[in-house]
Specification:
Layout: H1 2-6, H2 8-11, H3 16-36, H4 41-47, H5 53-69, H6 78-92, H7 96-99
Helix pairs in contact: 3-5
Amino acid sequence: MALALSACDQLGIETPAQTSARQESEGKAVGGACRHAGRALEDCYKSSPKMSKAAIYAGWRDMDTYMRENKIDIVQTLEAMERTEEKRRSSDTETPAEAAPDAEEKPAAKGKQS
């Protein structure tokens, strides 16, 4: 019987302990990646609802400590870079009148009517 059960590892069947360890390490990896990309912890939870929040937080916290100690900046994702570029373009196309709407208006002359 023991001989038959020892072959389960060779078949690729995970034990509950192995499954738990894998899910924990995946959650930490997701949390670390979120912190490195500069994403908020809450956004990370929303993007990975099936992952353990504790594992995500542990990975996020570990990466935060590592980044602070080594003075590592966040890495902007392509999506974040596109949003920044869109904001920059929209602020460049804004006219001065839109920026300060009442700056050029002159008061009407009093007492003169035609």
